[in-house]
């Protein structure tokens, strides 16, 4: 559908490898997306998936109520090579316009690097720390980079199935099974847990504020290609069987993680 006159988005790039100097800048189509009511990293993930549907030179206008979104969108453009056109506020809504760059413009502004991945070691099973891990992982995945989460020791509790099959365990494995959270819904807060009341209150507030739940963030990470690796040694020590973990999870050891870390420029231990 042709854009209305006031919805014209004109390409102003000085790059000439794809467009001749004599060629007139085309009138670009504008696609409008509503990301209101959802919090980080939701708007950025919507920005990424929506931009994938656009042709080079077309514009995306996305509306969000997340106050940090305009700055996040500008940073996302710097990392992906797309052009940040504008940002404005209208009655508490943040309106951001982004232009999809041509492939050659992306190559010039965003050269290929041999180490651009992100890795996370999730050692903790505290609800707040696990939430932070998946928020960061989804944000990194939204830039199109390779992201890996290495789940070790207590972090394994974040990727257990809710409905687990019956598996044979030794005495120590059974004891760990009784003492540890059975799945992500049973994770506790690192502070002010108050016998589980704090964790329930946290989930309630997140729902009221439009923030995705831990389980939703985990699902989004899987859909965005984030690699989940469970530490084999930790599984052996804590009596966790592969059948108890999410189907998406692969098993690896320290060498597997170090291989991913070698290819990354950010490695975080949480």
Plain-language structure description:
The protein is an alpha/beta fold and 270 residues long. A hairpin with a 2-residue loop joins strand 5 (83-90) and strand 6. Helix 4 runs parallel beside helix 7 (214-223). The radius of gyration is 22 Å and the shape is globular. It folds into two domains: 5-109, 2-Layer Sandwich (Translation Initiation Factor IF3); 117-269, DsrEFH-like (Hypothetical Protein Ychn, Chain: A). The longest helix has 15 residues, at 127-141. The strands form three sheets. It has a five-stranded parallel β-sheet, sandwiched between helices. The protein has a four-stranded mixed β-sheet with strand order 3-4-6-5, with helices on one face. It has helices spanning 42-51, 69-80, 103-109, 127-141, 171-179, 197-208, 214-223, 232-238, 254-262, and strands spanning 9-10, 27-28, 30-35, 59-64, 83-90, 93-99, 117-122, 147-151, 227-231, 250-252, 264-269. It starts with 8 loop residues before the first strand and ends with a strand.
């Amino acid at each position: 559908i042709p854009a209305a006159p006031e919805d014209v988005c004109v390409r102003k790039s000085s790059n000439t490898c794809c467009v001749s100097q004599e060629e007139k800048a085309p009138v670009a189509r504008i696609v409008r997306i509503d990301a209101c009511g959802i919090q980080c990293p939701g708007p950025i993930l919507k920005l990424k998936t929506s931009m994938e549907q656009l042709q080079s030179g077309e514009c995306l206008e996305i509306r969000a109520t997340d106050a940090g979104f305009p700055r996040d969108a500008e940073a996302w453009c710097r990392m992906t090579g797309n052009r940040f056109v504008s940002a404005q506020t209208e009655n508490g809504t943040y309106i951001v316009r982004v232009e999809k760059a041509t492939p050659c413009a992306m190559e010039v502004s965003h050269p290929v690097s041999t180490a651009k991945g992100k890795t996370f070691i999730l050692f903790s099973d505290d609800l707040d720390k696990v939430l932070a891990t998946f928020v960061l992982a989804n944000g990194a995945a939204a830039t199109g980079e390779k992201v890996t989460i290495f789940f070790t020791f207590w972090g394994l509790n974040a990727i257990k199935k809710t409905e687990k099959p019956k598996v044979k365990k030794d005495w120590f494995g059974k004891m760990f099974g009784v003492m540890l959270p059975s799945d992500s819904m049973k994770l506790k807060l690192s502070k002010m847990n108050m016998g589980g009341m704090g964790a329930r209150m946290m989930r309630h507030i997140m729902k009221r504020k439009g923030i995705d739940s831990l389980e939703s963030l985990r699902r989004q990470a899987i859909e965005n290609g984030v690699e989940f690796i469970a530490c084999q040694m930790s599984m052996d020590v804590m009596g966790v069987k592969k059948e108890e973990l999410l189907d998406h999870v692969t098993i690896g050891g320290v060498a597997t993680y170090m291989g991913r870390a070698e290819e990354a420029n950010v490695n975080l231990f949480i």
